[in-house]
């Protein structure tokens, strides 16, 4: 166990939701309907509760606790815009905080853990410890057949009990609003964040078009085709049909692509591809050119 637990406002009936929560809830409800950016709502939540970082994460039930594969993350990071040595939030902590209850944790409940209890030598705790964040809070938002959605928050100091109670009081509201979110909200916001990040990388010369005519990553013909189809919006099943290959072959291609493009997962690869995605880029117009 990681020093985690569940806070319940029912234990403190004398406390009510503070006015600082109202704006956060209102912004969240507006964001899930597409009225404002999800990152703006996450900022309001950080402002209300004194957090340094807040994120909505979708995590595959089958992945290892500290892996990024099959994970979508939309995050507001207060320090990311202030310090050049702070990288984006890459590895969610929900699976570690909720432990064995990860895929069945009560929707809207509040789970907490002290960062020091994670250990200091894994991919989750290392960046948090380096930033001197001390406490993490997770609220389950939804469970799907193969994945779960969470609201995660990280704090530079211990969270006061009154604020934990307020989080418990609004947790169900946040989850209910998330359930009625506009279609494709998380994916849309992931792409929007990725586009902004990659534009900054491109300006600094650190990012190139993976599918440029000169094939900078030296992709094979098959790997190039997979990337073209991914950048066109096809999912794995559609790629299997388009290329008439099996799932094991596709996995091999993806592993090779990750190594050559220095990406760690399919979502990260998609983020790299989307910056330079062109409507006219198809297998016929691009897939046969300058590939091994």
Remind me, CATH topology of the largest domain? Beta-Lactamase
CATH class of the largest domain: Alpha Beta
Please write the string of helix (H) and strand (E) elements. Answer: EHHEEHEHEEHHHHHH
Number of strands: 6
Mean pLDDT: 78
Describe the structure.
The structure is a single chain. The protein is an alpha+beta fold and 292 residues long. The protein has two domains: 5-187, Beta-Lactamase; 199-274, Orthogonal Bundle (Arc Repressor Mutant, subunit A), CATH 1.10.10. It contains ten helices and six strands.
Task: Describe what is shown at a glance.
The protein has 292 residues and is α+β, with helices and mostly antiparallel strands. 40% of the residues lie in helices and 13% in strands. The protein has two domains: 183 residues, 2-Layer Sandwich (Beta-Lactamase), CATH 3.30.450.40; 76 residues, Arc Repressor Mutant, subunit A.
Secondary structure: elements and pairs:
Elements: E1 5-6, H1 19-32, H2 38-49, E2 53-60, E3 71-77, H3 94-98, E4 111-114, H4 125-130, E5 135-143, E6 147-155, H5 161-179, H6 185-203, H7 221-231, H8 236-243, H9 247-261, H10 266-274
Antiparallel strand pairs: 1-4, 2-3, 2-6, 4-5, 5-6
Quick tags:
DNA-binding; 40% helix; Tscrpt_reg_LuxR_C; Sig_transdc_resp-reg_C-effctor; DNA binding; alpha+beta; elongated; 10 helices; disordered C terminus; Arc Repressor Mutant, subunit A; 2 domains; 13% strand; WH-like_DNA-bd_sf; 292 residues
């Amino acid at each position: 166990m990681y020093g985690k637990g569940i806070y319940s406002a029912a234990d403190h009936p004398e406390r009510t939701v503070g006015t600082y929560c109202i704006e956060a809830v209102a912004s969240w409800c507006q964001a899930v309907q597409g009225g404002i950016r999800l990152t703006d709502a996450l900022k309001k939540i950080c402002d209300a509760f004194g957090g340094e970082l807040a994120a909505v994460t979708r995590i595959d039930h089958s992945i290892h606790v500290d892996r990024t594969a099959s994970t979508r993350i939309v995050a507001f990071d207060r320090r990311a815009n202030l310090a050049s040595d702070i990288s984006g939030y890459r590895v969610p902590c929900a699976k570690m905080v909720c432990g064995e209850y990860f895929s069945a944790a009560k929707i809207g409940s509040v789970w907490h853990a002290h960062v020091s209890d994670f250990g200091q030598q894994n991919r989750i705790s290392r960046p948090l410890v380096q930033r001197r964040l001390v406490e993490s809070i997770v609220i389950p938002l939804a469970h799907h057949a193969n994945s779960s959605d969470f609201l995660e928050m990280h704090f530079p100091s211990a969270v006061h009990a009154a604020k934990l109670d307020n989080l418990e009081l609004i947790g169900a509201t946040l989850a209910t609003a998330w359930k009625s979110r506009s279609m494709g909200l998380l994916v849309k916001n992931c792409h929007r964040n990725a586009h902004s990040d990659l534009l900054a990388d491109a300006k600094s010369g650190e990012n190139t078009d993976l599918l440029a005519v000169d094939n900078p990553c030296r992709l094979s013909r098959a790997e190039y085709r997979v990337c073209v189809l991914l950048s066109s919006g096809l999912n794995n099943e559609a790629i299997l049909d388009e290329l008439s290959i099996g799932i094991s072959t596709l996995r091999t291609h993806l592993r090779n692509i990750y190594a050559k493009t220095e990406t760690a997962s399919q979502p990260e690869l998609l983020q790299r591809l989307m910056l330079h995605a062109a409507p006219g880029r198809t297998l016929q117009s691009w897939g046969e050119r300058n590939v091994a």
